[in-house]
Automatic annotation (TrEMBL):
<dbReference type="Pfam" id="PF00173">
    <property type="entry name" value="Cyt-b5"/>
</dbReference>
<dbReference type="InterPro" id="IPR001199">
    <property type="entry name" value="Cyt_B5-like_heme/steroid-bd"/>
</dbReference>
<feature type="transmembrane region" description="Helical">
    <location>
        <begin position="131"/>
        <end position="150"/>
    </location>
</feature>
<dbReference type="GO" id="GO:0006629">
    <property type="term" value="P:lipid metabolic process"/>
</dbReference>
<feature type="transmembrane region" description="Helical">
    <location>
        <begin position="301"/>
        <end position="320"/>
    </location>
</feature>
<keyword id="KW-0812">Transmembrane</keyword>
<dbReference type="GO" id="GO:0016717">
    <property type="term" value="F:oxidoreductase activity, acting on paired donors, with oxidation of a pair of donors resulting in the reduction of molecular oxygen to two molecules of water"/>
</dbReference>
<feature type="region of interest" description="Disordered">
    <location>
        <begin position="1"/>
        <end position="22"/>
    </location>
</feature>
<protein>
    <recommendedName>
        <fullName>Cytochrome b5 heme-binding domain-containing protein</fullName>
    </recommendedName>
</protein>
<dbReference type="InterPro" id="IPR012171">
    <property type="entry name" value="Fatty_acid_desaturase"/>
</dbReference>
<dbReference type="InterPro" id="IPR036400">
    <property type="entry name" value="Cyt_B5-like_heme/steroid_sf"/>
</dbReference>
<dbReference type="GO" id="GO:0016020">
    <property type="term" value="C:membrane"/>
</dbReference>
<dbReference type="Pfam" id="PF00487">
    <property type="entry name" value="FA_desaturase"/>
</dbReference>
<keyword id="KW-1133">Transmembrane helix</keyword>
<dbReference type="InterPro" id="IPR005804">
    <property type="entry name" value="FA_desaturase_dom"/>
</dbReference>
<keyword id="KW-0472">Membrane</keyword>
<feature type="transmembrane region" description="Helical">
    <location>
        <begin position="253"/>
        <end position="274"/>
    </location>
</feature>
């Protein structure tokens, strides 16, 4: 950023014409800084675009990140990007001396796109009949179990099964939808995306955090998932003596499941639902004060009240008053949902030799970091088609991070080709044939990150120790 950029932000300059006459029809662009862009403006590659009246083919969710630099997010979900796409938006300014730690259009990116798009043709990357059959099966299971949860006395068995059914909605329905991958029709994604709210979360908070996580996976400053469990758990492998390290972290591999079991409660009773400003995204610098978020708050709050009434109040009403047994059932339901979701989440980016800081070399004088390469080397894949049907493709985490707007139904078909291209380009691809192998590697990593033992073998942030 130029040292006098703030002073220049109000300066007007013509960038497409040197004419000075008053009749000139050339666009006039302002020079601004990232911190001073408007609530309905976004920055892509240093260009400032006003999206207030932009009719986005993917729906109004584009408004979610108004007021932010969305270069990575934009290129991440537009794999067919060309400069002509940007011409559809109203450009209103420029950010001088714009730079990024990530680079695009590398040989690896070009080849992996070329090969994958031979398998999944453009326009066909959305949900298949198989995906929707799976999604509606899980939706039917969820609502059937919810009916019993509300109308009959609860039991521990029902609590466990119902909790797992909520997790299955999170994995198989809302995840694809809130990535815009379930359907090319925006309203279908919007509707299925509300599955997050029907299981105790929030589609808006989820998108704020999850899209940021996808854009900057394992980034030392920009990935909110890296810090989400602190101070109880350290996902980041901080250097020995780091201020965030505590003695208890040496034993985190032994207690991390108990922490993950509280995921449901922390989501359901999260006060961030009131302003829809996700704490992790806010901590890494994402601006969440824009018209889209403000107008969505009433819907988010209403859905959260509905969830609490249905799942935490109705069971007591059914038995005629407060009951410690019912209270226990609710806690078990939440724990079952939490462990099903969070245990799988933990596998994705925390395993032995994972790259915990993909832009490390870039910041220390190296070339820019290939974003596509970084997504592979910060993620893992396990199992195959069956695991994909159970986890909504969460097991194909490498493929998902490379192509997040592709339906999970396609990942089993592109995975072999992805591994082949990675091997050709020397990109480290972590694959575990069985989920338990990934789990063992994750537990080892959690222990290593907790006691800083990796630092005895070099810098673990490079993923090459």
């Amino acid at each position: 950023m130029a040292p006098d950029a703030d002073r220049l932000r109000q300066r007007q300059t013509k960038v497409l014409s040197d004419k000075s006459d008053a009749d000139s029809t050339e666009p006039v662009l302002r020079i601004s800084t990232l911190k001073s862009i408007g609530e309905t403006e976004i920055v892509i590659d240093g260009g400032i675009y006003d999206i207030k009246d932009f009719d986005h083919p993917g729906g109004e969710s584009i408004q979610l990140f108004g007021g932010n630099d969305v270069t990575v997010q934009y290129k991440m979900i537009h794999p067919y990007h060309t400069t002509k796409h940007l011409e559809k938006m109203k450009r209103v300014g420029t950010v001088p001396d714009y730079s990024s730690e990530y680079i695009w259009d590398t040989p690896f990116e070009r080849e992996i796109k070329k090969e994958v798009f031979k398998i999944v043709r453009r326009g066909r990357e959305f949900g298949t009949w198989g995906y929707f059959a799976r999604a509606f099966f899980y939706i039917g299971l969820f609502f059937a179990l919810q009916y019993y949860w509300v109308t009959t006395p609860t039991t521990y068995a029902l609590a466990i099964v119902y909790g797992v059914s909520q997790a299955l909605i999170g994995l198989n329905v809302q995840h694809d939808a809130n990535h815009g991958a379930a359907s090319k029709k925006a309203w279908v994604n919007d509707l299925l995306g509300l599955g997050a709210d029907f299981i105790g979360g929030s589609k808006w908070l989820w998108m704020e955090q999850h899209w940021t996580h996808h854009s900057f996976t394992n980034h030392h400053e920009m990935d909110p998932d890296s810090y989400g469990a602190e101070p109880m758990l350290l996902w980041n492998d901080y250097p020995p003596g780091h201020e965030k390290r505590r003695f208890v972290h040496k034993f985190q591999a032994f207690y991390y499941l108990f922490v993950l079991a509280g995921y449901w409660a922390s989501a359901v009773f999260n006060t961030q639902i009131l302003d829809l400003k996700q704490a992790g995204a806010k901590e890494v610098g994402i601006n969440m004060e824009n018209p889209y978020i403000r107008k969505s708050r009433k819907y988010a709050i209403g859905l959260r009240i509905l969830y609490i009434l249905t799942n935490c109040v109705a069971p007591f009403y059914t038995v005629g008053g407060f009951s410690m047994a019912v209270f226990g059932h609710i806690l078990v339901m939440g724990a079952a949902s939490s462990l099903t979701l969070a245990t799988l989440f933990a596998l994705s980016h925390n395993f032995e030799k994972v790259d915990r800081d993909p832009t490390y070399d870039t910041r220390h004088g190296g070339e820019g970091t290939c974003w596509f390469k970084s997504q592979v080397e910060t993620s893992s894949t396990y199992g195959g088609f069956i695991s994909g049907a159970l986890t909504g493709g969460l097991n194909f985490q490498v493929e998902h991070h490379l192509f997040p707007r592709m339906s999970s139904a396609w990942y089993p078909f592109i995975a072999p080709k992805v591994r082949e291209v990675c091997k050709k380009h020397g990109v480290q691809y972590a694959y575990y044939p069985w989920v338990w192998q990934n789990l063992v590697s994750t537990i080892k990593y959690i222990h290593q990150a907790g006691n800083a033992s990796n630092w005895a073998h070099g810098n673990p942030y490079t993923g090459s120790q």
